[in-house]
Amino acid sequence: CLSVAVIRAKAVSAKEVDSGNDIYGNPIKRIQYEIKQIKMFKGPDKDIEFIYTAPSTAVCGRLLDTGGKKEYLIAGKSEGNGKMHITLCDLVSTWDSLTPTQKKSLNQRYQMGCECKISRCLSIPCFVSSSDECLWTDWAMEKNNVDGRQAKHYACIKRSDGSCAWYRGMAPPKQEFLDIEDP
Known about the structure:
The structure is a single chain. The chain is mainly β. The protein has 4 helices and 10 strands, in the order E-E-E-E-E-E-H-E-E-H-H-E-E-H. The longest helix is centred in the middle third of the chain and has 10 residues, at 100-109. It starts with a strand and ends with a helix. The mean pLDDT is 83.
């Protein structure tokens, strides 16, 4: 059973490995990255030691710099046995490219948003279907931009009444915000 894992890590080395055979009996190649996990934001109790991906971007593989210099924020699928799988569709960003709000939200507020759902708004108008939902409007408001203002500077946080709302900025959420009833 695969589950979502979100980690901060460095890739130390890479090698091509066989990963079983396809339906025609041909070996399936994968890149195995040995990584040094710096922090786990979400995932299994066991640290991730290896990340697997397809051997090229043409077949949805993600390429990581090895040598342990670049730190990444990586979201992918974990097997729970120290192994993780990533594709082109998974989030892989260099840690340095994240905004201060994104870093702080990951380090200090991640758990506050775990029970919230983020729904992508493709075109205006959009509506939430429940109070535990935050509408992500970057796509509609900023010409299909997946790395827009909301993604960079806001966090979707659960409040004391059980509803979820976007919170902006570096400062911790004020108690009034967490206690407020209307988004």
